[in-house]
Amino acid sequence: MGEDTRSEVYAELAGVGPYGVRPGHALITMVEPHPGHEYAYNRWYEDDHYIAGAMAMPWMYAGRRWVATRDLQLLRYPEKSAVAQPVTAGCYLSTYWVTRGRYDEHMKWTVGINKRLNRDGRVHQDRTHVFTAFQDHEATVYRDGDAGPRDFHALDHPYRGLVLEVVDAESPGRRAELLEWLRDTRLPGRLAGSASPAAMVTVFRPTPLPGDRMSYVKQVEGVDTRLTLLWFLEADPREAWEERFGGLDEEVAASGLGLVELVAPFVPTVPGTDRYVDELR
User: Is the pLDDT of residue 2 over 70?
Assistant: First the structure.
């Protein structure tokens, strides 16, 4: 007998549940290929895993890969980071949007497909997950109001760079206050004016990974206190880095609401190529 695909189930599932366009959830995963395995990792991720382990899944509708060359890694701060040890660890970042209200359904599929990929020998093991978490969308702040791409366009629009910022609230009870301050005061102030290279900032909060996740992915830390910000840039992050992105940690610390644990710039990969792989070390 042929393989059972249960194809009739797909028509049933398509007729029920949320199917909007907003990024209600995200997968944000920062990974460090082991030394000597950079080319093999890049080709495996791009040629197989990005598709079979991500984009081919239900409700994951947009994705983009980013890379931090050595010069970009050296711009990161703070030096003592609760996210990356050392702070330069994690030279590849992948970001994916998941349809709002479809987190549970997507998680069932992703656990199942990753178990299958692992069983079939289609998982590159010579890598370390530095910061990998599914996250719920909390806010998006735009520089240009209603003009320009929306957050659901962000992973398809040709942005020239991205800055990952991870902030921990002073306590779980103060995360909502930290989010309010970021959304209403700090981010609008940073984005104000045409001189800002960032067109938008999306804000997420991490969720725990399921208990039956793959063993090589560690459980998410800071679930009760952490916020993850993605700054989408129209300019190379190296341009006036200190002027535009320096002091974010001091700004948050001065608010008394939390601490910045990572500020890390990236540029987009060039799909189908090994561009930047020889610039990682």
Answer: no
Cα dihedral 65→71→73→77 (10° resolution): -130
Provide the CA 178 distance to its chain's centre, in angstroms.
Answer: 20
Contact assessment for residue 202 and residue 252, using Cβ atoms and an 8 Å cutoff:
no
Task: Name residue 216's amino acid.
Answer: Y
Average pLDDT of the segment spanning 7-36: 94
All domains in the chain, ordered by first residue: 18-279 (3.30.70.100)
pLDDT at 218: 66
The end-to-end CA distance of the chain, in Å, is 51
What percent of the chain has pLDDT above 70? Answer: 96
In the structure, what pLDDT confidence band is assigned to residue 1 with cuts at 50, 70 and 90?
Answer: very low
> For the chain, what is the mean pLDDT?
94
Cα distances (angstroms) measured from residue 156 to each of 19, 139, 150: 19, 19, 11
Amino acid at 70: R
Query: Please, what sign has the CA dihedral across residues 271, 159, 163, 131?
Result: negative
